[in-house]
Specification:
mainly alpha, 10 helices
């Protein structure tokens, strides 16, 4: 994909949003020009940032991640690949902008009771653990359906012992954790590992890792909710 294709994709995504905003601005909102100018500058900066980020993803992150996965599968033992998956899962989540936005919103909405650092570290370790599990699934041919059924059964069980706000945060966190960092690096690396592994099938084994990343916050934030709920009851 060329940079021109990236620019066209970003324009296709942003222009309808801008059009709706300008329509509401004309009919209802009627911001003064000073405020409107700041908003339009912010939208323009967003567009440039999206072009640069997506360009870097398609031209840099994805080819590198695919090559890394293939190299690891060919040259290293399974435990090294699983450990590397844990590390990359942690770093990708820790660096994910959407995760940090969610963590800040949780801290603000809870009045500081649930700190953003606590949510960030919980999400990062949770995703890291499930990415490592995903690598083990590829290397040891573990049935994906079994993992998903057990994982969501545990999540549903913990929901019964956690307060409603933690359940809501957990499922929202599942969405934000599967952001561009995870998709561009972790999924592409998993496909590369499946391609390089003996007997691996990238179409069958390489995908499913994003579902595990989405499951990780639900499990770990729900577990955190159970712990915090018990502490609230004890107090």
């Amino acid at each position: 994909m060329s940079m021109l294709d990236v620019v066209l994709d970003v324009l296709q995504a942003l222009l309808p949003v801008i059009a709706f905003f300008l329509l509401f601005q004309y009919l209802y909102i009627k911001y003064p020009w000073v405020t409107l100018k700041k908003i339009l500058i912010g939208v323009a900066i967003t567009g440039v940032g999206m072009v640069l980020f997506l360009g870097g993803v398609f031209l840099g992150f994805m080819p590198i991640a695919r090559s890394m996965g293939e190299y690891l599968a060919i040259n290293y033992d399974n435990w090294v690949i699983i450990s590397f998956g844990f590390l990359m899962g942690f770093l990708a989540t820790y660096a994910e902008p959407a995760v940090r936005v969610l963590c800040k919103q949780v801290e603000t909405s809870s009045g500081g009771f649930i700190s953003s650092k606590l949510i960030l570290w919980t999400l990062s370790f949770g995703v890291a653990a499930l990415v490592a599990l995903g690598m083990a699934r590829i290397l040891y041919d573990i049935d994906f359906r079994t993992i998903i059924i057990i994982g969501y059964s545990l999540a549903l069980l913990m929901m019964r012992f956690s307060e409603a706000q933690y359940v809501a945060i957990a499922f929202d966190a599942g969405g934000v954790a599967t952001g561009p960092m995870a998709v561009s690096i972790i999924m592409t690396m998993a496909v590369g590992i499946a391609s390089g592994a003996e007997g691996g099938n990238p179409l069958v084994d390489g995908f499913g890792i994003i579902a595990l990343i989405a499951l990780a916050p639900i499990l770990f934030i729900s577990a955190l909710g159970v712990i915090l709920t018990r502490k609230e009851v004890e107090v």
